[in-house]
Structure formats: structure tokens, C-alpha cells
From TrEMBL, chains A, B, C, D:
Stated name of the protein: L-rhamnose isomerase / sugar isomerase
Transmembrane segments: none
GO biological process: L-lyxose metabolic process; rhamnose catabolic process
Species of provenance: Agreia pratensis
Keywords: Isomerase, Manganese, Metal-binding
GO molecular-function term, one example from the UniProt record: metal ion binding
InterPro entries for this protein: L-rhamnose_isomerase (IPR050337), Rhamnose_iso-rel (IPR013457), Xyl_isomerase-like_sf (IPR036237)
UniProt xrefs under NCBIfam families: RhaI_grampos
Length: 387, 387, 387, 387
């Protein structure tokens, strides 16, 4: 039996990067609802993100999104973040909100549009140099809505060429991570729809090109932990975008829809060497708090990842292997479930307190008056996906 | 063998109602792209809809959406439509774009919000009296995003009560049609997610309450034609919202994603008495032309329905029944497929010309210069889902 | 906060009926693997089922399947069961394993086949009288593989007629429960594919006709707890067939694939009055232990239901309602998750011991030597779905 | 506009390999129904397959399955086939019907089981040398039913090693094609679940290892033509297993469930150079005629592929490219749909007659009396998946 005390040390240093855009408003095509106190600019998003880290100790980095988080002085933005105890992380590009990208960006058959999209990534790389960011994350909305609309094969070739041009520009200590997504916003075909495509594309680029796995970007029924195991085996798992979903890319709080799936994913991460100080895998959230409180929502998210990591670390690997090798189906499953069903919340609360963190981070935050303060102070246009 | 000449008469009088909102911009949560010439107000939407009818003869009615199509004088709007050769049809309510509805409308646990939503439907009924519309269509965005967020059972009871209040208000020659949808914008539970729920709710209301079937609102793999057959059997199929999808509620052009499915649906409509002068089933489009031309897109849509109706009418029912009753699986399937594979486009073009319509409605429209004219003339804010 | 001691009394009398066929071999179309010690006849299946009840106290009833469990003397079979501490429960009919049913049974267009299927149900009712069974469970494999193969609407009408004939035959203290299933073994259409169809059919029959919900029989993404809430609201939830699935009708151990879903289902059962001494809902397993130990597999299953029932009972309903009514999305969700994450295994072990049951039923069974004994003793043809 | 006469020459030499097992009985886990006249042994299966080729001219090869088609003298079997106008094709291995493979074959943690599975493939390679077969097709049933049951990552590594051993044994003019499948018979994880895994595995083996794409082996909603385009681009599409499905791996007649999908797939095949004399892609059926006539069912299948190939060849590539490059969404889609809706059945019938084949192959076969003859003559045990 593995005890919490056996695994506590492995919880040190866990870091789950926060997306700046989670602190702006988001919604569906039907409506973007507002929430009192929502951040109005990059600085306020970072300030809110810093609150999450202050109470949980789990999120020392904030990912930014260009152009949503465009500022004149990135060094100043970085210093501002540092003052609040966090640093700027992954830079996310955006090639889906400009009229020019209506029919594609890096895959466009129009060379001018393609160049514009490439230039945007060059700008992101410049920002990375200014902020000290290590990862350039590319998620493409590119795709088509109708059969025949464009040439699937030609787009794939143009994508390869565009990516190569961008990859050649990143610094020797920087990485390019390519995210895949099953569908949306394109409804017939998506240019990077599955891990196989992302893998084939980054494998052609070079060592510092890797795959980003968003847990909400798969076909119904897909075994995500299998993909985790496979990408780790192939040495190409670069990062996670965590969230959860019941239907499509719902972008709900990670662990909210299927906690057991999150557990299985984290178990395979650990099993495959993707967790810990030697791992190259970056962990990040990518969520939308459409109707719930945003700062508390992000806290709930990183705590879910922490709690489930603890459970996954509790798996008695020796007993598991023994049961597996003797084809004891029920016995092996029982070893895994025993860890999943273990309530780690009490030990984690004590562990937090021993590190000067509140036992209950969300309650501590809610008692702090921060939310009330920003709800009162922040008047005027709130940030959203558009800005 | 059934010939086109045998079924031509049955094509007379076919009517597919157009949604006014198809002529405004639409998009995804990521971006709403503009299209040159997009209508800016209800009048321009109706004018565009009238073009579809002018060239196809298939769409004499235009459904409106409140508040998107709110005007001061509905009688004047109706007269405007009549002048253009069309009339106003179904009135669609909207309880998903007001901050008050963030957590529900007709199902809200807040009596004030519920009353507001009911009052909105009363307003819609008043408009129906002014426009002479027969159908009040209710699609609810109500639902929750997280398990536990609200009480599923309590919401269902409140929904029943709200619907009863609305139903009691409609005129004796008016109908209430309740649409169901699998998911979106709610991501954990939807209050009217399936035909069973819609059926149970309208059955409790009375004779003039019926189900609206949107072809894009089902779980993956759902056999939609079975639902058509069942609802016709139960006497509760009120109307269709036609569109097509590959993944979720993609709202693509009807017949674009799976033409054979559209054929099967229309076959069951005909088989079950849902087509023709004696049918109470209303046919309507509900689509989004996010990236393609809108007027031509609507033309393509109604033509797809017409062409597939012709194919479905061509099914040799006598031969089919004979093969079915002798359990000749391949033979029965072949009778159906023979009709589906018959190219009706030539005969339909002749049929159109014999009625003073252009053989190729889309080409005729494109040659008319209308699109270029509106693209040049319509400057300023284009209509979209929000207005 | 609700404590285990607050809900312990409600665990008394929980009963999860076992399917006799879970103790025979099962498999896929590719292979049915054997397992040492598998029962060879109805008596041995019942003896194995009695072991589950002996160690868990949770399964005093065994459902039988006709003709798989056909015997000459049902009174003797019942007495044999009683001697082992269990009784015979639901009678399951079978209209899918006879050449005559190749193209349908209760829905067949051939009157002779339909009568044969009806007669089979009459036989099942006779057996129910002999065994004292209360429920006749009908799951139909009826459907078609190809569009056009048969007339969907006509089959539905014939189904209604066949069911009425059967319903008229059941005793005044007996019930007919109609199970629905999304697909398999039919691959184009299934005659009872969803809860709506099952509901419409049983509603037409009368008060003692109800719906059976098999947790593995839905389209991907279906919110099953919603259906539970709806059927309880409509007064038509008759019984459960518990199991779990990742893809289709996988028939895995209940709670194995998505424990949180099982929790949500049981919460809605409790919320809607479907649990406890006054409930009319029957709980049953319907699983296949294709590769794992069968008796221990059934134990794991009923324990999963018991553990998750305890968690669902632990939900602080008062706190939940308060959070729901104030639209505190995160707070309401947290109340639910708190119960789900509470480790009830220790308290349940003590509770069991206080009732003379082993703290760890599976370990106790495995230590008993029963499995080794039957593995050694039972030579010859093992029971399977075919016999 | 492309005319039939423009593409007729490209239809020459089209070959769709038939699976010997399609002429034996098949079914679901619920029941394998018999069909009069079903073949009883490899010779009769080949004789039936030869009928398909005799009337359609489309299927000069018959794939065999070991051990189902095991004979003492493969040279004699090949000669027998040649006498009937066909030849033996792909050799399919089977590692799912032996008790030893209950927990895996090429992925087993048991070295003895693994070696047995490897040896089986060596035997298949020996048979290939005897029959002159070029392709060894490996579809693995390997996987697990419960989380934790076995080590996903370890199995993947063992799979790589096993495949390497097999690959090293094939002749220099032989190929290994690795099929992937989403799920079934394993219900939690499958060792080769997607094209990405198959691609990564065969890419590691060498040039003569390729991917086999079975059109029924994907998650719901998967865009299969995208995978076709991608694999052709990567030079790794080895072969097709054609069939169709509404839900899971239904193994229905190709083109029966979604003819438009088949059209899109064939269009991408042609677009990517996968069709014609220079292509290395092998086309094969893999279907189950559970309830319909088998020989006629195979005829329907190859004719469906031929008809849809003709439609795909009819696409006006020049017009399509022009519309695509000008982002004319509706125009480009219309070019594609025009080809799909063109009724090629008449021209194909004439084309067949000009080659000495019957205009209506199925009718000609049915008029030949062959089916009646075998139904009368073939008494005794029919072949099925088990033998």
C-alpha cells in the first residue's frame, strides 16, 4: 500500500499554467454573458491569475494570447507579473479572428494570407523573446465547412510548408507545440483534426516541435490516456491543455465531467515519465468559465489536477504489475480503483498548511474580499475572446 | 417503375419556410465573419428571402425571430412581405440573449425570470395575431453546465407549468411547437434534450401543441427517420427545422452532409402522411451560412429539399412492400436505392420552366445582378444573431 | 454535512437482482472464451449467484432467462434457490435466437412468427406464475440492417398490437417492463431504440407497463440521469439493467467505466423517489464477464452500486438546494462532488461487519475455496448465452 | 463537364478483392443465423467468390483467412481458384480465436503466447509463398476491457517488437499491412485503435509495412477521407477494407449506409494517386452478410464501389480547382455534388455489355440458378467465422 506520505514529495513543484483568457468573458455563439469583476485588460487578467497562485501555489505561470494580450511593452508586462509572484508562459497565436482568415490561415491557398499568418507567428516569436516564453502554441481553426470547398491534400502540404517556416524561426531554447482538434469552428474537415496529423507534422519539423493535447478535442469515446501513452512513447508529447467535456469542446473545468478519466490520463503521464522535474511536458488549462465565477473556477481546476495527480501517484505500481502479469483482471483493476477512491483531500489540506498555504484555498480566496473588490472597482468594457 | 411524370403533380405546392436570420451574419464562438451585401434589418432580410422564392417558387413564407425582427408595425412588415410575394410565417421566441436568462428562462427557479420569459412569449403571440402567423416555435437554450448546478427534476416541472401558461394564451387556430436539442449552449444537461421529452411535454398541453424536429439536434448515430415515423404515428410531428451536420449542431445546408439521410427522412414523411395538402407538418430551414453566400445558400437548400422529395416520391411503394413482405433484404433495399440514385435534376428543370420558373434558379439569380447590387448598396452594420 | 451514520439506515434492504446469465460464458462475435468453473446449468448459476448474496447481502434475487434457464419443474428450481438463500426474480424473454426471428419477432410482418413470439411470452408468464416472479422483462432484438428492408412505421404498429396481447395476459400483481436499446444486433434501425419509444408504447398499454433502463443502451453522450429524472417524473421507470460501457453496449461491470456517471444516476434515483422501501423501481445487473472472474465480478458490481448509493445518499440536499437557488454554480457543484469524493469504503466495511457480513466480501469469497472447488468439479460443457 | 466517355477507360482493371469469409455465415454475439446454400469449406467459398467475378468482372482476387481457410495443399487451392477465373489474394492472420489469446497475442506479457502469435504469422507467410499472395494483413483484437487490466505502454512496446520480428520474415516482394480499429472486441483500450498508431508502428518497420484502412473502424464523426488523403500524402496507405456502418463496426455492404461518404473517400483516393495502374493501394471488402443473400450481397458491394468510383472520376477537377482557389464555397461544393448526383448506372450497364458482361450482373446471377443449386446441394455444417 502506498501512503500519502510516500508521495507527498512528488507533489512539490507541480505547476499548471493558467490561460489569461480564462479571466475574460467567454460564451457560445448564442451569447457571451458578463460576470461582475471580469478583467478588462492583460494586467487585470494577470492580477487575477496571480490570485490563483497565491492561494494554491500551483500556478506560477500565465499563458498569453496574441493579439488579445497585446501590449506595448512586454518587458513591463513581465515585470508586472513577477511583482505579483507569477511569470509569463506560453504564447498562443491567433489566426481565426481576422477577416482575411475566413477560408484559412497557414493552409490558405492565397499566398498573401499565408504570409500574413506566418508573419503573425514571427511576431509571437518576437514576443516570446521579450517575455522569455519557451513555448509557441499553435492551434489552428483552419478547415472547411463543405465537401469540395477546398483541397484537403493541398492544404496539408501548405500547412507543412508554413510550419517549417515558423519552426525555422524559433530560438534554440524555444519549442513549437501543435494542437489538434476534432472539429469546430470548421464543420466538414479540420486541417489538424487528430493526434496522428499533429504527430506527422511535428515529426517532419524537428526535435523542438511537439504535440499539444487538449483533453476536449477528441471524437466521442476516444481513449485519451492511450494517446498520452503513445505520444510519450514516441517522445512527442509537448503539452496539455486541460479542460473537460460531455459533448464537444465544452471547455468545462478539468475533472468536472469525468474525474476518473482525468485520473487515468494522469496515471499514464506518470507511468510514461511525463511528470516530475525531468519531464518536458507542460501542463496548462484551457477553459471557459461561461457562467461560473472565473477566479474560483480556475482554483477549482488546478486543485482538481493536484488532487487527481495525488491519487494517480498513490497507485501501487508493484501490486499493479503483479496483478497485470498474472492476468488478474479484477485484481489489477482493483489496485487502480483503490487509488482513485482514496480521499486525498484531507492530507492535501494538511500538506498545504505545512507550506504556508491555506488548507482550503477557495474558501480563503472567497474570504479575502478580492472578488467583491474587483466587482465594485472594475467598471467599463470587460475583456473577452475578442480583446 | 415510378416515373417523374407520375409524381410531378405531388411537387405542386411544396413550401419550405425560410428563416429570416439566415440572411444575417452568423458564426461560431470564435468569430462571426461578415459577407458583402448582408441584410441590415428585417425588411432587407425579407427582401432577400423573397429572392429565393422568386427563383425557386419554393419558399412563400419567412419565419421571424423576436426580438431580432422586432419592428414597430407588424402589419406594415407583413404588407411589405406580401408586396414581394411572400408572407410572414412562424414566430420564433428568444430567451437566450438576455442577462436575466444566464441560468435559465422558462425553467428558472427565479419566479421573476420565469415570468419575464412567459411574458416574452405573450408578446410573440401578440405579434402572431398581428402577422397572421400560425405557429409559435419555442427552442430553449435552458440547461446547466455542471452536475449539481440545478435540480433537473424541478426544472422539468417548472417547464411544464410555464408551457401550460403559454399554451393557454395561443389562439384556437394557432399552434405551439416545442423544439428539442441534444446539447449547446448548455454542456451538462439540456432541459428539452430529446424527442421523448418534447413529446411528453406537448402531450400534456393539448392538441395544438406539437414537436419540432431540427435535423441537427440529435446524438451521434441517431436514426432520425425513425423519430419522424414515430412522431407521425403519435400525431405529434408539428414541424421541421432542416439543416445538416457532420458533428454537432453544425447548421449546414440541408442535404449537404448526408444526402441519403435527407432522402430517408423525406421518405418516412411521405410514408407517414406528413407530406401533401392534408399534412399538418410545417417545413422550415434553420441554417447558418457562416462563410458561403447567403441568398444562393438558401436557394441551394430549398432545391435540395425539392430534389430529395422528388426522389422520395419516386420510390416504388408497391415493389417495396412486396420485397419487404418476402424478407428480400437486398431487393427491398434496391427499390429504395433506385429512387435515391435517380437523377431528377433534368426533369425538375423542365418542370420548373413549364411553370415560368428558371431551369437553374441559382444561375438565374446570380445573373440577375441582385447580389452585386446589395453588396454595393448595403453599407453599415449588418444584421446578425444579436440584432 | 451529512455523515455516514446519518444515511446508514437507508442502506438496509438494498437489493440488486443478479442475472443468471452472468454466471455463464459470454463474449463477442469474435470469440466466447471459457473460464474455469463456469456454471453448466440453471442450478449451478443459481448456486453461484447465492455466493454473491452470501458475502454481500445485496442480491437476494436471481433473474432468469427463458429458454436459457428452462427446467421441467420451476417450483423445484425456486425451492432450490430458497435453500441457498435467494429467490427467483424477473423473467426475461428471448426472441432473438430462433431462426424464425431472423427478420423480427413481435414486429414481424409474418403473423405466424408474431404469434410464435407472443406465445413465447405467454410461456414466460406461466413460468412467472410458477416462480412467483413479478416482472416480465422484454428486450427486443428486432430491427433492420438496411434502409428499406422493412417498413419502420408498420413494425411499430405491429409491436403495439403484440405488446397489448401480452400485457392483457399478465396477472394483476405482475408488470411488463419494456427495455430500449440504441442499436445491436440490428444495425440500421431498432424497433425500440430510445426511452421515448419505450415510454410511448408502455403508456398505451396501461399502469403495469413500465420502462426498463439499461445503462449501456444509449447514444454516445446521452445524459442518462436526465432520463432517470424524466421517467420517475412520468411515473414510468420500472427497472434498471446496470452495467457500464466506454463505446457501445459493452456490458462491463457497473461503475467501471464512469463511476461519476453511476453516482449521478443514483443521485437522481434518490432525488426522484426511486430508492427505498416505497419505490417501485427494480434494480438489476445485466453484464458480461467475458474475460474476468464471474462470481467475483458480480460481487464487485453490487458493491459498486452499494458504495455509490452511499455516496449519493451523502449529498447534503439542503446545502445543495441553497446553492442551486442562489445560482452558485461552483458551490452547488462542490456540494455534489464532496459526496462523490467521500471515501465510504471504510464505514461500509464496518457496517457490513455489524450485520454479520465480511468487511471485504470479495476477499472472503476468494478465501473460501469455492472458486477452486467449482473449477475442479465442473467438467463438461459450460453454460453460455446459447444455453 | 466531364462525360462518362471521358472516364470509361479508367474503369478498366478496377479490382476489388473479396473476403472468403463473406461467403460463410456471420452474425452478432446474439445469434449467427444460417442462410441456405452457404459455403461449407474454402473451396465452396472460392467458387461463390468466382461467381461474383464472373458476372461483374470486378473481383479477380479472393482473400483468405488462416485458420478458417486452412487446407493441406495451397497450391491445389490456388489452382482450383485459377480454374474458376480468380486467384488467391491477401492472407489474413487470426489471433483472436484461441484460448491462449484471451488476454492478448502480439502484445501479450507472456512470452510464450507472444511467440505463438508470431509463429502463426510465420505460418501465414509460408502460405503466402505457396499461394503467391503479396499482402499479409494483420488485424489485432488485442486490448483490455478494464482500466488497469494491463500496461498500455508496455503492450505498445511489445507490439513493436513482435511486428518487427514478423516484418523481418516477409519476402522482398511481400508487404505487411496493419489494420487499426477503434474498439471491439476489447472495450476499454485497443492496442491499434487509430491510424496514428498504425502509422507510427509501420513507419518504424520499413518501406513494405503499410496501413490498412477499414472504413468501419473509426470513432463517430471521423472524417475518413481526410485520413485517406493524409496516408496517401505520407506514402503509407496500403489497403482498404470496405464496408459501411451506422453505429459501430456494423460491417454492412459498402455504400449502403452513407453513399456520399464512399464517394468522398474515392474522390480523395483518386485525388491522391491511390487509384489506377500505378497505385500500390489494394482494395478489398470486409463485410458480414448476416441476414441478406451473400453472393448477391458481394455483387451489390463491388458494384457500389464501381459506381461510386465512376462518379468520383466524373468530378470536373479543373472547375473544382478554379472554384476552390476563388473561395467560391457553394460553387466548389456544386462541382463535387454534380458528379455525385450523376446517374452512372445506365452508362455502366452499356459499358459492361460492351465487355461481354451482363448489363445487370445481379439479375443475371439470380437468373442463372446457381443460388438455387447450392441451396439444394449444400447440406451439412455451413462455414462461419469459427471455421
Amino acid at each position: 500500500m502506498v501512503q500519502f506520505s510516500d508521495i507527498a514529495a512528488q507533489l512539490e513543484g507541480q505547476s499548471i499554467e493558467l490561460p489569461s483568457w480564462a479571466f475574460g468573458n467567454s460564451g457560445t455563439r448564442f451569447r457571451v454573458f458578463g460576470t461582475p469583476g471580469t478583467a478588462r485588460n492583460p494586467e487585470e487578467k494577470i492580477a487575477d491569475a496571480a490570485q490563483v497562485n497565491k492561494y494554491t501555489g500551483l500556478s506560477p505561470k500565465v499563458a498569453i494570447h496574441i493579439p488579445w494580450d497585446k501590449v506595448d511593452d512586454y518587458a513591463a508586462l513581465g515585470a508586472y507579473a513577477n511583482d505579483l509572484g507569477v511569470e509569463l508562459g506560453t504564447v498562443n497565436s491567433n489566426t481565426f479572428q481576422d477577416e482575411d482568415y475566413k477560408f484559412g490561415s497557414l493552409t490558405s491557398s492565397n499566398p498573401a494570407v499565408r504570409q500574413k499568418a506566418i508573419d503573425h507567428h514571427f511576431e509571437c516569436i518576437d514576443i516570446m523573446h521579450a517575455t522569455g516564453s519557451k513555448d509557441l502554441k499553435i492551434w489552428l481553426a483552419d478547415g472547411t465547412n463543405y465537401p469540395g470547398q477546398d483541397d484537403i491534400r493541398g492544404r496539408q502540404d501548405r500547412l507543412a510548408e508554413s510550419l517549417q517556416t515558423i519552426y525555422d524561426r524559433i530560438g534554440s531554447d524555444q519549442r513549437l507545440v501543435l494542437e489538434y482538434k476534432f472539429f469546430e469552428p470548421a464543420f466538414y474537415h479540420t486541417d489538424v483534426p487528430d493526434w496522428g496529423t499533429s504527430y506527422a507534422q511535428v515529426a517532419a519539423l524537428g526535435e523542438r516541435a511537439l504535440v499539444c493535447l487538449d483533453t476536449g478535442h477528441h471524437a466521442p469515446g476516444t481513449n485519451i490516456e492511450f494517446i498520452v501513452a503513445q505520444l510519450l512513447r514516441l517522445g512527442k508529447l509537448g503539452s496539455f491543455d486541460f479542460n473537460s467535456r460531455f459533448y464537444a469542446d465544452d471547455d468545462l473545468i478539468v475533472g468536472a465531467a469525468d474525474p476518473f478519466q482525468l485520473f487515468r490520463i494522469l496515471y499514464e503521464v506518470i507511468r510514461g515519465g511525463g511528470y516530475g522535474p525531468d519531464s518536458v511536458v507542460a501542463f496548462m488549462l484551457d477553459q471557459c468559465h461561461n457562467i461560473e465565477a472565473k477566479i474560483a473556477g480556475q482554483m477549482r481546476s488546478v486543485l482538481n489536477v493536484q488532487e487527481m495527480t495525488a491519487r494517480a501517484l498513490l497507485v501501487d505500481r508493484q501490486a499493479l504489475t503483479a496483478a497485470q502479469e498474472s492476468n488478474d483482471v479484477l485484481g489489477a483493476n482493483a489496485v487502480l480503483m483503490d487509488a482513485f477512491y482514496t480521499d486525498v483531500r484531507g492530507p492535501l489540506a494538511s500538506w498545504r498548511e505545512s507550506r504556508g498555504l491555506p488548507a482550503d484555498p477557495i474558501a480563503a480566496f472567497q474570504a479575502s474580499g478580492y472578488q467583491e473588490k474587483i466587482s465594485a472597482e472594475r467598471v467599463g468594457a470587460q475583456a473577452s475572446w475578442g480583446a
